[in-house]
Amino acid sequence: MKAVVYESAKNYTIKEIPTPEPKAGEVLIKIELAGVCGTDLHIHEGDFLAEFPLIPGHEMVGTVAALGSGVDKFKVGQRVTVNPVVSCGDCEFCREGKPILCHNRKGLGTNWPGSFAEYMIATQDLVFAVGNLSPDVAIFAEPAACAMHGAQMLNIKAGSSALIFGAGPTGQLLAQLMATSGAASVTVAGSTKFKLDAAKKLGADKTYLMDRNNVAKTKADLLAASPSGYDIVVEATGSMEVAEICVPLTRSGGTFMVYGVAEPDETFRINAFDVFHREIRIQGSFAEIDTFPATLAAFESGRLKTDGLITHRFSIEEYGKALEALRSDKSAHKIVIKF
């Protein structure tokens, strides 16, 4: 099979390797689509828990090609997706019922072979049937599961006002989930007009076209639109400059969520007294662990939509072009590898 194989950070080849055979309890999946996201750029650089050698890719949809012994939940030919996150079940956090914080967490496409290949292996407990969902919708299962985890962590109250910085695919999905979770008003702020247009079509109440080079104006404009601030402010861009205006934009008693992926050594400043006397809650949200069933149900109900988000499709031989488009093509929204 063809696969993208990294020997070290930034050092990859696209080559033929043996197709794996499923062992007991495992499923061999023939990949139809594999999603490319910002995390893959971090992995390309050797960050985000990457361990080499590695086949990256953590977003996928495909069909069951073969079953290992003991697998009775799936049939050959069935369309499925995969939860790429594996917890150990035995560390202190797993024993406390917090597997998302697992000390020994593994991830398909991070430190296990992932989906940038014609075939991949997953244990049956990580595999989910997607029913009648099309591949173009099911490919969003993993980023939407991350957004679902974020929405659950926010504990959204009915009637809340929400502001999210970032109109990329996960930002779009989280904006929708905040609305369906009870937010009365959702504002999406981003620096690319066509992405904001997509947000409006997908149900955002308001959008704001921001200038990343003038966050002071962004802060002033958004406060002018909501003088008391917003009950929920989500930073989903990974920009430290944007993160620094989030607490001032948060309504007293509200929540600021750090959702975007930043570099490990990046920091931003907050006014500690402001957080203290206005009782601002600062909440992180990292990946997902158990939200695939709820996410697929949201897609199947039609309440969570992905219309128009896929803009670029590449073959596996064009993997380098896919990374470059993700890095620098302003017309790119969701990028997928097609097989």
What would the keywords be for this entry?
alpha/beta, Quinone Oxidoreductase, Chain A, domain 1, 2 domains, seven-stranded mixed beta sheet, 28% helix, 28% strand, zinc, metal-binding
Structure in words:
Residues 7-337 form the Enoyl reductase (ER) domain. With 339 residues, this protein is of the alpha/beta class. The chain folds into 2 domains: 2-140 and 309-338, Medium-chain alcohol dehydrogenases, catalytic domain (Quinone Oxidoreductase, Chain A, domain 1); 146-284, 3-Layer(aba) Sandwich (Rossmann fold), CATH 3.40.50.720. It is 28% helix and 28% strand. The strands form 4 sheets. Strands 3, 4, 5, 8, 9, 16 and 17 form a 7-stranded mixed sheet that branches. Helix 4 (141-154) packs across helix 5 (169-180) and helix 4 (141-154) packs across helix 11 (292-301). The termini are close together.
Instruction: Return the CATH topology of the largest domain.
Output: Quinone Oxidoreductase, Chain A, domain 1
- What overall geometry do the principal axes of the alpha carbons give? globular
> For the record, what CATH class of the largest domain applies?
Alpha Beta
Q: Count the helices. How many?
A: 12
Most strands sheet: 7 strands, mixed
Reading the helices and strands in chain order gives: EEEHEEEHEEEHHEHEHEHEHHEHEHEHE
* SSE-based structural type: alpha/beta
Write down the domain tally: 2
- End-to-end separation in angstroms reads 11 Å
Instruction: Compute the average pLDDT.
Output: 98
Low-confidence stretches: none
Radius of gyration from CA coordinates: 20 Å
CATH homologous superfamily assignment of the largest domain: Medium-chain alcohol dehydrogenases, catalytic domain
For the secondary structure, the number of strands is: 17
Estimate the helix proportion, in percent.
25-40%
CATH 2nd-level architecture of the largest domain: Alpha-Beta Complex
